[in-house]
Design brief:
alpha+beta, about 220 residues, 10 helices
Length: about 220
Amino acid sequence: MSVTPDNSTGCIRCGTCCKKGGPALHIEDRQIILEGHIRAEHLITIRRGEPAYLPGSEKIQPVPHELVKIAGKNRGWECLFFRDQESSCMVYEHRPLECRILKCWDTTELLRVTGRGLLTRMDIINLGDPAVKLIELHEEKCAVHVMEDFLSLLSKHDGSTYFKKLEEMVQEDLDIRSAAASEFTLPVALELFLLGRPLFKLLSGRGVSVHEKHGRIHLSI
């Protein structure tokens, strides 16, 4: 249980929850998307194994399952729909489940649904959509949890072997994104929903520098 800054037990519209990041979406939120109140380009996919801040935890840790959440703005995590000046929500009447039940002075109900009944990309995309095969190919070649396995093995075995595997994964990730952008004319916002964050950005957050030389990807620590 927690309390608002002034120890009140009601929302004071400080915007703190919205500034910490958009909510993860649940099965109950699918209708909001189908009705067009929230669109795919408003979303970002956090893939299995990707480090993220989870409610109820004071640290960033790998997510055990894929989740889709409202994207951030200005290259940060502040909810895309948060109006900072008015401290209000652009989709308040159609806000997702986590926003409806969140009480910062008592997080019991929020924690009860955290990690449960989450929407995935496949719950949102039509099964006949060509993007399904794109996602499946990307997960086969560029899974985040495999990237994390390679990172953990760097210090235990021949580092050059796993560096090479990581370089190949990052290159594959960029190649798939480039091909998808050409074939589907994907805007960046929609790419973040369909394919999640690029591997090179995830690696940079882990202290691994990514640079290009002679048209190929190279890593360094």
